[in-house]
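INTERNAL AUDIT FORM
Audit reference: QA-55
Scope: verify that the stored structure record matches its stored sequence.
Auditor: D.O.
Record contents follow.
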Amino acid sequence: FVEEQNGRVLYPCYQAAPVRGALREILGIRPRQANGYFLFRGKEPFDLNVYIPQGYKVAVRPRVDRITHQQLLGMWWSQYTPGPRLLESAEDYPPVLENYLQCMLSRRLGLAMPDQGEAWLATVFNLPKMDDILGPLAGTESLKIELQRETMLGAMKDGELADLPLPAMPEGPPLLVPDASADVAVEPIAMHVPEECFYVRCGSFGNFIWLRKTLEQTGGDLANLLALRGVNYSLSDKLQRQLVLKESELARLVVADVAWIGTDPFLREGGATGVVFEANNLGASLALAGGIKQQRQAALADQKEAVERMIDVAGRQVSFISTPDNRVRSFYAIDGNYHLVTTSRYIVGRFYEAGEGTQALGASAEFLNARSLLPVARGDTVFFYASDAFFENLASPRYRVEMLRRLRAAGNLELARMARLAAKAEHVKADTLDDLIVGGFLPPSFGDLPGGSRTLLRGDLVLDSARGARGTFLPVPDIEFTTVTPSEARQYRSFIRDYRETTGRMDPIALAVQRYPFLPPPGAPPLPPEAGLRELIVIDARISPFTHGGSFFQGLGPPSRRQLRRVPGDVLSAEVVYPDQHAFSGLRDLKPPESRYLPLQRQPRTVLEYVLPYVAMTPPDYLFGYVGGTSGGAVLDEYITDRFGPPQRGLARGDGFWYRLESGGYTTYSFHPEILRSVGPQLVMEDAPRPAQMRLHVGDLAQTNLARLLDMMGFLRARQASDGNTALLNAMAQQLHLPREEALPAAEAIIDARLVCPQGGKYVLAQDKAGYPRWQSTAGREFVEGRYRFPPLGWLRGLDVDVAVVNGTLAAHVEVDMHWPAGSDVPPPPPPAARPKPPEELPPPKPAEKKPGGTP
C-alpha cells in the first residue's frame, strides 16, 4: 500500500516480473525489492507512507521533465494493465474494478489498452462457471465485461437510431419428434403452462419445500455442491422477496401440485419466472387465495414504496404489486383452481391462453414424447423440462436484442457506481452523470441505450429508466419494442447464423428426480439423528430427439445389457462399450506420498509444495489401478502389438512400468502385477439393470487416500477465491481511497452479491506486522488435514451413472448416495416405497412427419 495524507497519490501499482513473480508465488518467497508506480497531481513536494509490508516514509520532490515523464508513464501503464501471468487464473468475482479503471484511464490519458491474452494454463483446473452452461443463448459475465469496455472506450456507435424492424429468424432444421401414444398421461398443471416456459414440476408442496431448502443449502447455486464460490447472489431469497411469496402450513394442506416456470434463466438480473399452484378443490382454492392475499397485504405494509394495482390481462383482473426499482414485482392471477404468482405480465397472459388450450406445454408433441419416456406414474419428486420452444424463444430476435441491451444496462449501472467512487477519490464533483462525464470518469455518450432507456442517479440508487435496479430488471418479455439499430441487426444476424451452423436447434431436455431414504446394509445399525440426513437421489435424464451426439456416440457400440461385476476395493470404475470390445478401468486408491518426497518438514503452503511429492514419484509409486477390455478388441491392439508383442496367456511385462494379464477372455493392464493377480480372477460379466454404452461408479471417496489430494486441491481453489476477494477489497481502498471499513459494502453494491469466503472464514480488517489495516480472511492460509473438506467429499457417499443412446434418444440414469450434515434443514424423504423400475430399454419411435418446431 502507498498513501499520502492529502490524497494526491492515485492509481498505484507494483512491478511483477512475468516469470520470476510466478515462481516466487509458487515457492512462497517474498521478493527482496519491488518497483512501485503511481500518478499524482501538482508540483509541490509531498511525503509518502509506503507499506511493503513494513512501513516506510518517502519524501517526493517532483521536477518537470517531459521525456522522463513519458517514460515513467509508459512503465506505470505496462504494470497497471498487465496481461495474464503464468499460473494465473480468473477469480470468482467479476473483474469490474480493474476493467473500469483501465478503460477510464486509457481514454483520459490517451494510452492504448493492451491485448488481452488468454491465461490458458490458468483455466485447466477451474470448474466452468454456471453462466456458460447455455452458451450464446444466456449471455455471460465475460460478455458484459466486453460490453463495458466498448462503452468506456467509445467503441459503440453514438446516436444510432433504432429505425429498423426486428430481423427475421431463419428456420432451423426440423425437429423430428416421435409420435406418442394417444393414452399418454399428462399432469393437469402442465396444461396451464406456456410451451415456451421451462418447467420444474414438484408434484406436491412438500417436494417444493425440499427443492427450495436444497437451493438454500447451496447458497442458491447448485454449483456450490462441487466447489464453493467466492460470491453469493442470494437468488432464492431475492426471488421470494420479489414475488412476495413465502411457504406456509396452509399451502401444504391445500396445494395438490406445484410448478416453477419461466421463459428465461436470467435470474441474476431479473428473470421472467413464476410459480403455479394447483389447489385440491374449490374450497382449497379459496383458502389458498386467502393465504396468498394475506401475504401480499403484509408485504404492502412492510414495503412502504410498494403499491398494489388491479390491471386487466386477457380480460381478467389481476393483482399487481410493485416498487419503483422492481425490488418487488408480483402479479397474482387465478384461473379456476390454478394460481400463478409471477414477475412477468407476459407470462400472466400466456397462462390464461394455455389454460384455454393455446400452445400449452402439456399438449405439445415433444412433451407427450417426454412423458411417454418418463411417465407421470413414476411419482417423481421433481420433473424438469426445457422444450424446443423454450430454446427457440431464447434465440429469437426480441430475446437476443433485449438480452444484450439489459447486459449493457447492467454494465452501465456498475460503471456509474465506480465512476462516482473514482471521482470522489480525485475530489471531483460526482452528483450527476454530467459531472462524471465532464470529469472524464465516463465517456461523453454514456447513459443512453437503444430503445430510449437511460442510466439514472437518484441519491444512492443507480437505476435504468426502463428496467429498474440491478438484479431486479423488468423481465425480458415485458419490454416492448419493434425496432432495432443497424448494429443490433448485424449482431443478431451474425449470432443466429453461427447458432444455426453450430447447433441448429437445441434438443428438448427432460430430467426426473426421485428421493429415497438411505437403507443401511443388512445388520448395520440405523444412522443416529446427530449423523445428519442420508438419502438416495435418483435422476433419469432424457434428451429426445437427440441430434447432437456427433462422432463420439457414433464411435461406440450398441448399448449392452451386460456389465462388469463390481470388483471389491475399487473406489472408481468405468466401462465403455465399443463395437468389438467392452473396455473397463478401475482405480483402487492412491498411495500417500512418503515423507522422503516432501520438500520441507512442515505443512505445505504453496502450489509446488502440494504437487512436488507426486511429481517426484513415478506413477507406479502412487497410482494403483488397472485398465482393460475383452480380448481381441481393436481398442487394445496398439498396446498388445507395440508394447507386449503377440498375445499370450498369463502375466507379461511390457515396456516401461506396464504389466499385462491375459486370462478368462480379458486383457488387463496395470503398473502393479499384484493388482492384476487380484483383479483378474474377479472379472466377470453379469446382467445389467439397463442397457448402456457407458457406465461410471464412484465409491465413498471420503474414506480413501484420494480424499487428501482432493482436499488439498480444493483448498487451493478455495484459498484462491478467498484471496481474490480480499485483493478486491484492498484494491477498493487503495485505488478509490475508500475508508477501509467501507470497501466491503461498496464492492457488494457494485457486483450486487455478497462476498463469501469459500474456506468458511469471514472477511475482517486486521492489522499486519506494520500495524496497517488490511482485509483478510479469518480462515488459515495453510492446509491442515481435517480442517478443510472438498465440498463433494462432504455430501457424496456414492455415485452410479449409465448412459445410452437408443432409437434417437439419449438416456442417462444417475444414482447419488447423498449425505446432508446435521442442522442442514433439508426435509427427510418420504417413507420407503416400491421404487418404480425404469424401462429396460426405450420404446422404438413411431414414424413421424418432418415438421419444424414452432416458435411462439
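Auditor finding: record pair retrieved intact. The longest strand covers residues 809-820.
Action required: none
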